[in-house]
């Protein structure tokens, strides 16, 4: 399966307007497109940074949606007040212990590796990092999105609430840094979000 993420950034004071626009206008339009499986949305209310992700049955379906999605993305960007950043991904890992409840939090970590090392890093992520994350209190799910050509990955861990997410922060940072050192990957960004829309509907891969 594949996914397209769009990062939108606006003023924190207007973020609820942006969330409402995505839920009321963008989601119904995109999920009605052929091959779309679902959508999710993350929101950092402190910075105004949001990530809207759509999941697709296959690469052909995602690519064929590009023109139709572009107009929706431009309208959403006008609501948020900032230019969108778009990235297409392979969904390499999806593992759920439970469905995400209302009030769930999500920690996203972006990292880069040599493209030739992608499969080696992916195997280690599945065998080492996923079991570690399952031990976090309040763990709900983990996913890994991958761009093989660029050697770029985004890891997303969902917790049942922000308290659980914050309680795991120190342990997660140490585990992440240890993994990066051993696998020779570069951590390029990390952020914590509210999971405001959880309908990605990607099947289990682990």
From TrEMBL:
InterPro entries for the chain: Dimeric_a/b-barrel
Keyword entries, A-Z: Monooxygenase, Oxidoreductase
Name this protein carries in UniProt: Antibiotic biosynthesis monooxygenase
Gene Ontology molecular function, alphabetical: monooxygenase activity
